[in-house]
Each structure stands twice: as structure tokens, then as C-alpha cells.
Amino acid sequence: MEYTDQHRSHYEEHGYVRLGRLLEAADLAELQQRIDAIMLGEIDCPGLDFQLDGDEAEYAKMPEVSPGHKGATLAYRKIMGLECDPLFLEYMQHPLFRQITRRHIGADVSIFRAMFMNKPADRGTILPWHQDVGVGWGVGHNPTVTVWTALDPATIDNGCMQIVPGSHKRGVICEGHFPSQEQLAECAPPGSEMDLEADPGEVILLNNLLLHRSGVNSTAQSRRAFSVAYMDGAARSVRTGELFPMIFGAGALVPA
């Protein structure tokens, strides 16, 4: 699979592009089994941050993200720091992602986060409209591109992502991450949204400025996904001044 000029044109115009199914059945099953084993505590991967799914759908009532495993359950909402896991790191360094990031970012590429996202069966949290940028991220250079991979079917019924195509052209709408109702009325009026359903193993490239949201999962099928935000390797934390994990270029991480 290659990142073509047609892919790039669609991405730049609409803020997203479908790249097709990158993971074959065996590779997909390996990642599925790996993340389940991490959730169940069967694999100890130091350096991960965990967040359990909330008992209610309201975003503001979710448990905090914090270091360390919270118990054997498949009801985690988020696991961050997966560059520490050799299997996920190897996937993050796929040649297709090297090609994409070289075209959009450059030779030296780091990541803001490598994150598992989950809407467990018959539950899940409503994620309001937002952009994946802003002062809350604490990054000197806002992340540029996100590679999102479906590990399960993503459907309307199980809370697939919704986007507003073209909204990335508005720049940073709200530095506080979540736009106001007045801003949404202008930037995401009713009818402008699009459901971004996806098949297992399918990869979608997203501009970090693209407005997106998701709902709850009303099915008996989980909605697992893996999301990686790539950025300029020179980006530093505004809090500590430290660089972020390097994925491509000088000093890139190497799978164990």
C-alpha cells in the first residue's frame, strides 16, 4: 500500500482520507489479542496510563487517566503510552506511516501519544465535538496528523467517529479543546457531520484540526481502535521542555 497524490489531495481538502485495510487477519488478531492481554493484566507493560470507562455516558464524569493497571477487565476506555509495547511500536513504524509522515512532517518525527481507544459492549462515553490540538496538550508544536486504525467494526450503532469534513481549514477553533456552542453553531451546524464507519484493520488519516466526536455503544460488540498522533520531532513539552518519543529519524525508538 502506498500514500498516493490522490490520498494527499483528499486529505488536504477534507481533513481525512481512508487508506484502506492495512492489517491482514493474522496481524489484526495479534494486535487485538495483545491489547486484551494488556487490559486483563496478562502482559505487564511499564509506562502505560489507564482509564476505565465510566458508569455513565457523560464525558465529565469519567474516571481520570492515571499510571498503572486498574484491574483485569475489558472495560477500559483508554490506554496511553503504547509505544512502550514492542508490537504496537512496530506497527506505528509501518513503512506506510513513514511515507505519510515524511510528506506531511519531515524526516524526524515524534508522537504526542500512542493510544488505545475503546467503547466496551453496551456502554461507552459520549465524546463531545473537539479538535486534537490546543493549550491543554502542552506541546510547542501542535500535532499534525493522526493515524487511526479500527481494531473492531466501527458502526453508527457502536459509536463510530463523526467528523465535519473541511473543518480543519478553520485552524484552531478553541485553544481549550472543546468549542463553545456558539463556535459549534458556526463550525459544525446540524447536517454538516459525517459518520466515519470503518472495517476492522482499516486505517484512516485524520488532520488534528478536524472536528470530531463519538457516541455510546449500544451493541454487544466492542469498538476498539488504535490512534497515533504524529508531529515534528523538534516538538517539546511546554511544561518540562523535554522532547517526545521519536518514531522516525534520529534517535527513533527500536522495538525490543
Q: What would you say this structure looks like, in words?
A:
Helices cover 19% and strands 26% of the residues. It has 256 residues and is an alpha+beta fold. It has one domain: Sandwich (Jelly Rolls). The strands form two sheets. Strands 1, 2, 3, 4, 5, 7, 10, 12 and 13 form a nine-stranded antiparallel β-sheet that branches. A four-stranded antiparallel β-sheet has the order 6-11-8-9, with no helix packed on it.
Indicate the mean pLDDT.
94
Coarse structural class: alpha+beta
Largest sheet composition: 9 strands, antiparallel
Shape: globular
Question: Into which percentage range does the β-strand content fall?
Answer: 25-35%
Order of helices and strands: HEHEEEHHEEEEHEEEEE
CATH homologous superfamily, by name?
q2cbj1_9rhob like domain
Uncertain residue segments: none
